[in-house]
Amino acid sequence: MTLTIDRTEAGQTPVAKGKPRGGALDPFFEALCLASATVLLAALCWVLVSLLIGGWPAFHKFGVNFLFIRSWNPVTEVYGAAGPIVDTLITAFLALAISLPIAFGIAVFLVEFCPPVLRRPIGTAVELLAGIPSIVYGMWGLFVLAPWFALHIQLPLLTLAKPGSLLDKMTSGIPNGANILTASIILAIMVLPFIAAVLRDLMMTVPAQVRESAYGLGSSTMEVITKVSLPYIKRSAVGAVMLGLGRALGETMAVTFIIGNSHAFPKNLFDSGSTIASTIANEFNEATTDMHTSALIALGLVLFLITFAVLAMARALLGQQKVV
Amino acid sequence: MKSKVLIARRKAGNALFVGFCWITAAIALAALAAILFSLFKDGLGGMNLQIFTMDTPAPGSPGGLRNAIVGSILMCALAMLIAVVIGVLAGTWLAEYAGDSAYGKVVRFVNDVLLSAPSILVGLAIYQMLVAPFHGFSGLAGSVALALLAAPVVTRTTEDVLKLQPSALREAGVALGSPLASTVRRILWRSARTGILTGGLLAFARISGETAPLLFTALNNQFFSLNMTKPMANLPSVIFNGGLSAYDDLRKLAWAGALLIAVAVLGVNIIARTLTRENRQS
User: Fold this and answer.
1) Residue B193: closest CA among chain A residues belongs to which residue?
2) Which of A83, A84, A79 is nearest to A294 (CA)?
3) How far apart are CA A270 and CA A94, in angstroms?
4) Residue of A nearest to B185 (CA)
5) With contact defined as beta carbons under 8 Å apart, do B252 and B46 qualify?
6) Which of A28, A209, B62, B223 lies 20 to 30 Å from A115 when distance is taken between CA atoms?
7) Of B65, B80, B83, B46, nearest to B220 (Cα)?
8) Mean pLDDT, chain A, whole residue set
9) CB-CB: which of B14, B29, B92 is closest to A122?
10) Helices H, strands E: what count in chain A?
11) Mean pLDDT calculated for residue range B65-89
């Protein structure tokens, strides 16, 4: 932006006193901004309230047991959230466990070792992939990963494992590739570019002087990353990872495509399951009884509380540090 | 002697670390390349002129995605309109007016929650606000649900980018005798333009492929319709239904739709980048 000042003019004009011209708009503008901020608050409150109201009949009927009942049966009208809750947590944390080291690796690679010619194209590719809608990842999971997984992992394991052995117990499941593990892999691939892009951006914010002085003291690359860069970006990095976890917990479409949508309580990672979000997506429009609808909304409330808890935890972790 | 061992150990550790980074980068890029490859292979396989001229078909008959494309564009446009207005103003309030106030902290926290709030829950909430009471799914409800997902992204980026602006800019505004509102609008917003635009584009990228909230709000529509108060066709729903259907031609349409969305999102991103770069050069 350029700013030109006419010096002679500036020297002669007397300084105006009192409120600046157009200042009458100030309170109006501030109120408008405040109102917009309040819309966000109202929206979140409405999400919570509507889930409470909609889910009330289910909570009223099943009480706290709603969380522990292991069956989800629209025919007998018995609904319990245990299966979906467990599946949701397993897929999300497994996805994070897979994607976090890889995202960290690619971020460090891009910042530290990548040949300069490739740095921009690869960095751009990662950023662009972070924007691809999750349903695309879901399609890929359903049509490419699931058949591959069934053919090259599940079938060999099935023939390898003796019936009743530990391996059999750990890997038994319908060999169609639609299971909790593949859902986690898809989730991991999905959140990977997001976390990697944010981590890379954060590492770029570490001042060159700080990193170079560490190198100047004879640090190896690993030491610069783990002892200088990481502590510098710790707070924001945790935030980025928490955002990734939030995405994984609430991700609907990619999971609905590939998790198999079975309501039985999962026996192992190779078993099909259904997360909270996939259950709602599959059944909400087809729910025939009020209790079914209400149970689905109650599930939604559980998901809301889980993601809320994750974020509150992140905040508590972040609160102690006043960096960045 | 001791120091030599230590150096050797540090070197070995570093080599492992470097190797780990190379391998993870290779794995990640391979996985992502595999996805792009099938997307383009299967998407282009289902692509033809009919996609843009015909509406979604019944299984077995020829058809395209015209109604879904138009529906998606309409709903996203309306959603972005709402989201940008609310997001930029709310972000401005957080950055310029809220300071350390308790209400500011609450709103910031709420915005963080909304950012990560599962989109399907937003769909459920809007269903109970705009669908259930009026006994009908509508494109409008879909737009509001999408807006609710986009607004927090815009708010967050606006706040962040405004806070990055040097306070000298604010002081310059005050020194010129400009009211705070004008300083914000004419100096800060302009200087933060690229950042805010990026936020808007990120938000658009997020909602353009968003499926879950549309399932219970806009539903879907087999036919061409511009009526926002009625169920509206949209690309994500067509992809979802087609992908899970048993019919080959519907699956082909789903892949074509997925490619369209992906290309649109990539295109928007690339436009944003070019804008950012030009802005930096001038």
Assistant:
1) A1
2) A79
3) 13
4) A29
5) yes
6) A209
7) B65
8) 84
9) B29
10) 15, 2
11) 93
